[in-house]
Automatic annotation (TrEMBL):
One of its GO terms (molecular function) is RNA binding. GO terms for biological process: RNA modification. Belongs to the PPR family. PCMP-H subfamily. SUPFAM superfamilies: TPR-like (SSF48452). It comes from Microthlaspi erraticum. The keyword Repeat applies. NCBIfam families: PPR. This is DYW domain-containing protein. PPR repeats lie at residues 90-124, 195-225, 226-256, 257-291, 358-392.
């Protein structure tokens, strides 16, 4: 005991923890328990623990409180240390430890200590099983789930409502829905009538398995529903992509909760209906409902994906006006929104005000600098992250490599790529290899790029060969480009861009008969993938366009304006359609070849609806094609306007006839 006291003695007790000066009067257990509850960090808790050892009052009641408190303070290792040094390990201490380990995501350790109980002659009770069952829900061990179920029967606690709910939830989350339904069916009728939670966990299980039909059947059979019941089914519809059904159910929901609003907003954002996500959020505010941090993060995600800067600023204003803490979740979402909406310096300001930065917030800021081509700031931010003690992960390295790519920093990019495996034991993914191939290709190091593809430990996919393809096009390496196109066809025989490239190559070399041979399979095998979309926010409203779109209420005016600017651009040397297939073959076939690309329509509307001298901001979900890129450069000079376009890879800042990407993207 003396050695433990010496170990914990060095620092004085905090002012709020008072120990009686008269050591002859031993404090009661309740006094030390109150001191334990007053601790808000492990340093204070260790000092109280030291005094408990000194007074020799470490009863099982006090010990269970020490274990619980250390678990709440996110110190499971300290909880385990307390447990190991206990002479008497009873049910209360075991329950506190198993619960704490589960809540700190130490699931295997939680199960191991449950298995230890009978070996020490301790019998689990109804408070033990819910947490060990929750641990197995995360571990997803079917055999263990059945063994735990058997143990609940053996210990006569399987009829307890909390245990029964935990069993259904465990079976559902381990993918054993038949067993979950059987446990539910075998539950006493009284429990089914009284426990809404029992129904909710089973409905959630079917929703997670995308069996919304069965989930709906259960929902309609419920004797009583609460807000969570409605929200669970709404989220189930959202997760399975049935947004219309989710919206219909939401409309008839008697009392809409913040959870149901958030599920709907998140669903619209997740499936690309950004206009509905943003409008639903503002409708929520009009109804007097207060959003939580998840709601705000979800709607800010919709703003960042669509470039809705005005809406994002309004949401930020709401956060500040209502005293909502800009913590990691909201702070990261704001950083991401400002960066992706073109205001990276605003993103940096928000980032600097986040007190407790995590890996996600650092990544968002580094990625923000990277897509804007601000290489120096991206690397500086990465170094600051390292100095802060945060370890980089594969996503951070992807952001850093993107910064090197967009700035042409080849040697440094290769060093970072090598450092992943050598210094941080992080295996590069296919995305990392694609960026490095692109980096080498941009610098004209086509041999090294091809060598990397052929020696990489992962099978190259469409995007990998396409990165080399773009480099061959940019550096006019037609012979290598044709070879790369053959590889592209092996990966995806229906790929349109390959046929276009091979046809153009043959035509350039005068092999017109080969062009005709290419044309037939091209016509037969073209398939349309996810269509390209462009967004422009004007007067607080998000406008969406697809290729050849004529659904906008100003469609006629847009066409007239577009014809006007194309005519003016032609006078300045623009050649329509001469270069549209140059850059992004794995994505360009997502837009109709003969249609007017969506970014041109967005540009025309922007010029129509904004005042002279105002920057036009456009967001596209794919990479901009060569034809549109060429037109944007000419229009920026003709109109004396800045055109800021974010595509799937980076920002293009068109000004005075040039682009910030230096015509390589």
């Amino acid at each position: 005991m003396k050695s433990l006291y010496v170990l914990f003695k060095p620092k004085p007790l905090p002012a709020k923890i008072s120990i009686p000066a008269d050591s002859r009067a031993l404090p009661a257990e309740s006094h030390f328990i109150s001191l334990i509850h007053a601790c808000n960090d492990t340093v204070s808790l260790r000092r109280v623990h030291a005094q408990i050892l000194r007074r020799d009052v470490l009863s099982s009641r006090v010990a269970s409180q020490l274990v619980s408190c250390s678990s709440l303070l996110k110190s499971p290792d300290y909880s385990l240390s307390i447990f190991r040094h206990l002479r008497e390990k009873n049910l209360f201490v075991f329950n506190a430890l198993i619960r704490g380990l589960t809540e700190n995501a130490r699931f295997e350790c939680s199960v191991r200590h449950f298995i230890l109980m009978p070996r020490l002659g301790v019998r689990p009770d109804r408070l033990t099983f819910p947490f060990v069952l929750k641990s197995n829900s995360k571990l997803r061990f079917r055999w263990l789930g059945m063994a735990l179920h058997t143990a609940t029967v053996k210990n006569c606690v399987d009829s307890d409502s909390f245990v029964r709910v935990s069993l259904v939830d465990m079976y559902a989350k381990t993918g054993e829905l038949k067993d979950a339904f059987q446990v539910f069916e075998e539950s006493p009728e009284r429990m089914k009538m009284e426990s809404i939670l029992l129904w909710n966990v089973l409905i959630n299980g079917y929703c997670r398995a995308c069996d919304t039909k069965m989930a709906k059947t259960l929902f309609e059979s419920m004797p009583e529903k609460n807000s969570a019941s409605w929200s669970t089914l709404i989220k189930g519809y959202v997760d399975s992509g049935q947004l219309n059904r989710a919206r219909q159910l939401f409309e008839v929901m008697p009392e809409k909760s913040v959870v149901s609003w958030t599920a709907l907003i998140n669903g619209f954002s997740q499936y690309g209906d950004y206009e509905s996500a943003i409008s639903t959020y503002f409708e929520m505010l009009e109804k007097g409902m207060k959003p939580n941090e998840y709601t705000i993060a979800a709607v800010l995600s919709a703003c960042s994906k669509s470039g809705a800067l005005g809406s994002g600023i309004r949401i930020h204003g709401y956060v500040l006006d209502n005293g909502i803490k800009v913590d990691r979740a909201i702070g990261t979402a704001l950083v991401d929104m400002y960066a992706k909406c073109g205001e990276v310096d605003c993103a940096a300001t928000v980032f600097s005000n986040i007190k407790h930065k995590d890996i996600l917030s650092w990544t968002a800021m580094i990625q923000g600098w990277a897509v804007h081509g601000r290489f120096q700031q991206a690397i500086l931010c990465f170094r600051e992250m390292m100095y802060s003690g945060e370890k980089p992960d594969e996503v951070v390295f992807l952001a850093v490599l993107t910064a090197c790519l967009n700035s042409g920093e080849v040697d440094l990019g290769i060093n970072f790529f090598a450092s992943m495996r050598l210094d941080y034991k992080i295996e590069p993914t296919l995305k990392h290899y694609v960026v490095v191939v692109d980096l080498l290709g941009r610098a004209g190091k086509l041999n090294k790029a091809q060598e990397l593809i052929e020696t990489m430990p992962i099978n190259p996919d469409l995007t990998t060969w396409a990165a080399l393809y773009r480099a061959c096009k940019a550096h006019k390496s037609n012979e290598r480009g044709e070879m790369v196109s053959q590889n592209l066809l092996e990966v995806d025989p229906k790929l349109r861009g390959s046929y276009i490239f091979l046809g153009k190559t043959c035509a350039d070399e005068g092999r017109y008969q080969d062009v005709e041979k290419r044309r037939l399979p091209f016509q037969k095998m073209v398939k349309e993938r996810c269509k390209g979309r462009s967004y422009i926010e004007l007067d607080g409203q998000l406008n969406k366009f697809s290729a050849g779109d004529s659904s906008h209420k100003q469609a006629q005016e847009i066409r007239v304006k577009l014809e006007e600017i194309i005519s003016l651009a032609i006078e300045r040397g623009y050649v329509p359609g001469a270069d549209w297939s140059i850059h992004d073959i794995e994505e360009e076939d997502k837009e109709i070849v003969t249609g007017i690309h969506s970014e041109k329509l967005a540009l025309a509307l922007g010029l129509l609806r904004t005042a002279p001298g105002t920057a036009v901001r456009i967001v596209k979900n794919l990479r901009i094609c060569g034809d549109c890129h060429s037109l944007m450069k000419h229009v920026s000079k003709i109109s004396q306007r800045d055109i800021i376009l974010r595509d799937a890879r980076q920002f293009h800042h068109f000004k005075d006839g040039g682009c910030s990407c230096d015509d390589y993207w």
